[in-house]
Amino acid sequence: MRFPTDVLAILTDPRTVIRDHRIHVPFQFELEVWRRMNTILKDMGATWDSRKAYRAHVFPHRIEEFMRQCLAAGEYPTRYEQGWFPTPPSLVTQIVDLAGVYPGMTVLEPSAGSGAITSELARRGALVDAYEVDEWRADVLREQGDCRKVFAADFLAQDPLEYTEGFDRVVMNPPFEKGLDHIKHALGFMKKDGTLVSVMTAGLMWWSDKASVQFRKEVEEVGGEIELLPDDSFAACGTNVRTCLVYVPGYPGGPLRTHDWHQRQPQQLGLFDFAA
Ligand SMILES: C[S@@+](CC[C@H](N)C(=O)[O-])C[C@H]1O[C@@H](n2cnc3c(N)ncnc32)[C@H](O)[C@@H]1O
Question: What Å distances lie between residue 189 and 13, 43, 112, 123, 234, CA to CA?
Answer without folding.
Answer: 42, 37, 15, 22, 27
